[in-house]
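Our preliminary data section would be incomplete without showing what the modeling component actually yields. Below, a chain of 695 amino acids is followed by its predicted structure, encoded as tokens that our downstream tools consume directly.
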Amino acid sequence: MKNQSTKLQCLLQPNFVLSYKPILLSIVTALASPLGFAEESAENKTAITNLDLPSVAVTGNPLGVNSDQLAVPVSVLNGRELSLKRGSTLGDTLNGIPSVSATHFGPNASRPVIRGLDAERVRIMQNGVGVVDASSLSFDHAVAIDPLVIEQIDVVRGPAALLYGGSAVGGVVNAIDHRIPTEALNGMIGRAEARLGGPDSQSNLAGVVDVGNGQFAIHADAYTRKTSDLDIPDFAVSSRKAQADNTPRINNGKLVNSSANGDGGALGASLTFNNGYVGASYSALNNNYGTVVEPNVRIDMQSQRLDIASEFTDLDQLWSGNIVNRLKFRLAHTDYQHQELESGIIGTTFKNSGIEGSLEAGHTPIDTKLGNITGVLGLQFQNTTFEALGTEAFVPSTNTQSKALYLYEELPIDQLKLSLGGRVEHTIVDASPWVNSSMSQNRSFNPYSYALGGLYKLDAHWSFTSNLSHNERAPSYFELYANGAHLATGQFEIGNSDFTKERSNGIDAQIRWKAGKNSFSVGPYYTRFSRFLGLLDTGNIDVGTGLPIAQFTAIPADFKGFEAEGKFNIADNWDLKLTGDYVRATNLSSGEALPRIAPLRLGAGLHYQKNSVGARLDVLHAFAQNRTAANELATDGYTDLSALFSYKLPTKLNIELFAKANNLLNQDVREHASILKDIAPQAARAVLFGLRSDF
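Predicted structure:
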């Protein structure tokens, strides 16, 4: 049974969730009491007390198959595993999954990097609809999602441009909160979680509750997080940087201006039927955090989002001759704003607001000589307006509109399942309100993408998958129109309004094996960009600001690598986990490496679970990265050793206590994928205590 988290949006004012957050948390605590829990049926108790949910991905395939049946590589984090792995940001939560690293602009702003690709090439979604924020514009801008209230995260590694657009050429991260219930609920379910300690002295609390009568369900969730400046094992400035440019090594043991204070919540509701649901939700997020680069600059972020979703299945049974058997609709409207405060005074304001949605229709199986073809036809649309006002507004106000049609089909032929499809898109990026005669102010693009994939079952345990794809992406507003000092990156950035589409072709393959609790997968990938829009250092200095000039440039480039992971039950109650990944990215016009590419990483973990007691010991070794771009420093390798102990209390409620110890070797961990790697290391050795409860 899926854990459902929903939001009631209809009749409530936007500030309701945050104004009544203490009340909502009190409700969650009260409902989690033995008296409230006793009203549940035994059937519901059995269903919801399972802490390890099945790994069923809802991303990467619109036909609703589980992860083992997908031709594309997908990793799923949910249930207890997600709870124990949660970080303060989406990027840090996912860092360490095969081929996933993070931009890590300090502990409060971090986007996922997939196979060496980030920013506009990794699509970040919430419940299948894109997140509207400013995180792809600058590394210091946080993603407008807090992992505390997320129920599942799907990570699609490799091109998913057919379903989600050109910004998914690197992959997709879909954060699922279940705030709109999709299944009937009769009774009450929920969870609560508290965390205390760690290298940032955090105090976090989150609660989720859903109540339903079998047809109508209501959801509420709320969270609060507070952290202090991060403890680090050594000086913030690396020895390499100090030797390279004589930067003084200061701030020993503390990452100054890395504290954060945030809260948020949601309300939602839905009507469920035998063959579908209709629902809506409203959510709000506040986040105030230090930017690390400048000791007196903080970012004050607010985001409000309205979601509407509906899905109906088995429509072909309603009347004869109907070829449509499923309809799915998703829509989200977002108002996002953050202000950069310099000693408490507003310096620059960034706004991004708009609407995004999709309508998807599945058809009944079409009988052919080879087999039955199943698939979907989808329509996606987006209309967002970005504004930057103030001293560091290096990108103009811009409106972006896109419309796309996509087709995805699957054909099973004995042990082989083929997937094929295509996407056509029309995108307009309009900066005409901004007067600058040196740049084209209104650009339109028509990207096309298509792919062919296959999954072949060699026998009951072994299978082979492969995907071929052609992907095109319209340039983003900042790749076209950036023109000014960007202090977060320490560069004067210049766009190119004459850019045409970014184009790439890719291939990946995997060998998979699964037998009972044991599984293993390994495979290479290769992506060749005929036009890669990269931000490259020109070697020149801007006279007015004294900053190095970096220009978005179209270059040929390739990304190649491999990824592997396995889980083996080596004895009763003992599991061994292995991971590994490597990516090599090259500017083919110069033969030089592209910047911020993570090195070879190998990991292993020994996990023990018996009855109420659990223990883990995990190690990740990142090798030194000496293959660097121009004006980029090399990065030393590190070994990150972590441990976890958990204990489920012998109570009627499903309550688990846990303690996490990170960076046990207290090493100076610096992520090469981070632009701040030489002034903002990872946390020092510390222990975090937590409590979680599912009811």
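Residues 1-54 have pLDDT under 50 and may be disordered. The longest helix spans residues 21-31. Preliminary results of this kind motivate Aim 1 of the renewal.
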